[in-house]
What does this fold into?
Amino acid sequence: MFALTIALFLGTAFNQLVLVGQQPTKAEMEKFCDSEKMQPNLELQQQTHITGRVTDIAGVPLKKSQVELRTCISQHNQVTVKVTATDESGHFDLGTVKKGTYRLLASPNRVWKQPTKLECVGEKCDLNIALQINPTDLPDAGCPIG
It folds into this structure.
């Protein structure tokens, strides 16, 4: 009797998991992704030459990985200003950037968590960005990078 009760419970739990784990439609996913609020993570008080290095948290460089700088118009609207790629040691150079509020994307996809706050003071800024892996089971894992 005990074994039958466990089997029935597990069968019910499994069916609930299947129902909960249904894939959203393309329209539902687009609506969800479009609602994402993207916060700026870099504010420049003056024109600044931005360089840096991107690694994982263990210090392994992200080689030939895209780095993108976007100007923040609103939480839902950002415009790409500059795009570059890291070299074999993870270094990048975005050149000189005007004073303003930006979002710097240190990787080209959601495999990595993007930096939440970057500090630049002065005319030259060298950023050391250590990225952490993003969970792949979150609802936004299927959204374009933001």
In short: Residues 1-19 have pLDDT under 50 and may be disordered. The domain at 38-135 is CATH 2.60.40.10 (Immunoglobulin-like). The helical segments are 2-20, 26-34.
